[in-house]
Amino acid sequence: MIEYKGRKFQVFKDVYEPSDDTFLILDNLAVKNGDKVLDVCTGTGILAITASEKASEVIAGDISPQAIECAKHNMNINDIKNMKIVESDLFENINTKFDLILFNPPYLPSDPDEPEHPLKKAWDGGTDGRVIIDLFLEEVNDYLLPGGVVQLIQSSLNNPGKTLKRLEKIGISPWIEAQEKYFFEELFVITAKHY
Question: Average pLDDT over the chain, rounded to whole?
Fold first, then answer.
């Protein structure tokens, strides 16, 4: 069980435990009162549940059935009523637009010969750490309302500059909201606004 700002979150087996990346984006959430929010790759649901305090509606999606069950459990123990959880591979089962889209993706570079692990999908970003990020960037614009905002975590290990350029190219103006150095990487919260 972990706590964040008075709320409790249980971490189920084979679900990514909130870590430095999670707390960096949590401490810099751009959610405004009345926002309609999507949390992609929700894991425990901690971003979505925290966003629900200000949002009018939150949808939390994840590809992992274990994460879906974990997020539902945490939604219930925190008595969240304005949130819906869907099993979705990125935007696969999402059919509406949002004021804010949150994304803490699998972003660590990996070796394709690495053995399978139940948690691998939660952190494995492919050989360059960008596979899931690039898939997200291909579609994100289709799910943003005019003036909508995207917030995502990036690591110095997977070329955040490339993400900034791709966001600009698709009409979303990005900036570095926050950054933090750790032992083997630097983490960035990128915030970007649809214009």
Answer: 90
